[in-house]
Specification:
Layout (H helix, E strand, L loop, with lengths): L7 H11 L1 H8 L1 H4 L9 E2 L1 H8 L9 E8 L7 E9 L6 H16 L3 E7 L10 E6 L2 E6 L2 E3 L5 H6 L4 H13 L4 H21 L4 H14 L4 H15 L8 H19 L4 H20 L8 H5 L4 H13 L3 H7 L6
Parallel strand pairs: 3-4, 4-7
Antiparallel strand pairs: 1-2, 2-3, 5-6
Helix pairs in contact: 1-2, 1-9, 7-8, 7-9, 8-9, 8-10, 11-12, 12-14
Length: about 325
Amino acid sequence: MPPPGPDYDAIWKELFMGFFPECMERFDPAFARRIDRSKKVRFLDKELRALLGRSPRPRRHVDLLAEVPLRGVGLDTVLQHVEIQRNQVARFAHRMLFYHAALIQRFQRPVMSLAILADPDPKWRPNELTSGIDGSGTRFEFPICKLADFTDAELESDPNPVNLVILAERLTRRHQKDPVARREGKLRLFGRMAELLRSKRYGKEQRLVLTRVLDWSIPLPEAEEEIFLDQLRQQEGDRPMTYLTTFERHALRKGLEQGRQEGRREGEQDGVRLGWVEALKAVASVRFPDWKPSWNRHLESLDDTELLQDWIKLAAASPSGAAFLRSIGKRPR
């Protein structure tokens, strides 16, 4: 069975939330120069959902609203509304005006609007709306960024991490029916990402975000993923990356398979429990460099299958093996 297609809505949203200044450098360089990077960007997801819940149309795109700190422009902050549109739609400029006006009315503050057009048609560039009659009217303009305008060479030569995700999306689109080409391209991009993460001082959470979104952007069938993992291990050598989503997913699957096989001797229900125990042990050993084999006893002693599954979610959010053990009430020794 082929893997499901990438969820680009989730990918782009996570990328923006993890690399907002870098995203703006790529999509709106003039605005990016105004951002005060010594202060945090605050994302207003809850407020945006409440507002757009009144939208008169189905939602098939990514909307993001951020409170952005500024420097040297006479304002402390500005609201930045970003819409990522992956296909052509009628009345797109009307929609941008609707949101722009609604945001100003709701927050009573300056609002910047930006549309990122991820469709393949180079001629579709809606960036304004003009309407009126008999001397009464309105003109609304907003900046757009057309992803198709960027050449591969431009994206590859620029160290901005956002470029890797644009390249990954192109790779998946160009090789939809060629998993070998996707696997080879994914390996190259992971190599470029490893070099970038070693040369830049990104925090751990940013490393997690970039690895996740790059991995999600290029899905592979199971057989090709196995080859990719082996090649990635060889490519990384003795300098493994901090976090590899693909490795964790692989470990989880293998752990479940091993646990089920061992559990058949003990009965179906215990086989399920052993499957999750082995899965959690495999994920912990892959994810945490500080994980000790002796700590596996804490996982093997649990009989609650549902709690084991919850622990896997905790492991995904923990910065270290010791921190994970403390989060489940165990003392690392």
